[in-house]
Amino acid sequence: MKQLKRWSVVAATLAAVFFVSCGGEDESSTKGDSKVSAKDSIQSSMVDSLISLADKAKDYERKFFLADSLEKAGVISSVRANFLRGSSLHSQNKRAASEVYYKKALDVEELARLLLE
């Protein structure tokens, strides 16, 4: 029963993320020099909420799964996904494994590529 509940939460989460990412028109607003669409802002807020809920529920396996799923869907960067994986493993007292993901998140080449985009 607990497993069914967990998968239903994951399915609802993914459905919500895809629903937000496939929304209607792209209304843009400017912030400084960069354009930020309203859809991207809502999507980012939704992602932050999902990760925060998993963290507050101390469901670190779901947090790890969210990082994987959101990275594969292209919603978050690999840097952020690796940081979330490291954070999830750190919370589970898997320090050596978390260190690997933290180091991947700090990969200078990946960060440079993101900054140049």
Low-confidence stretches: 23-33
End-to-end Cα distance: 45 Å
Strand order of the largest sheet: 1-2
* pLDDT averaged residue by residue: 76
Percent helix, as a range, is over 70%
Estimate the global geometry from the Cα principal axes: flat
Report the strand count.
2
Number of helices: 6
Our Rg estimate from Cα atoms comes to 16 Å
Secondary structure layout:
Layout: H1 2-21, E1 28-31, E2 34-37, H2 38-56, H3 60-72, H4 78-91, H5 95-105, H6 108-116
Antiparallel strand pairs: 1-2
Helix pairs in contact: 1-2, 1-3, 2-3, 3-4, 4-5
What does this structure look like?
This protein has helices at 2-21, 38-56, 60-72, 78-91, 95-105, 108-116, and strands spanning 28-31, 34-37. With 117 residues, the chain is mainly alpha-helical. A hairpin with a 2-residue loop joins strand 1 and strand 2. The model is unreliable at 23-33 (pLDDT under 50).
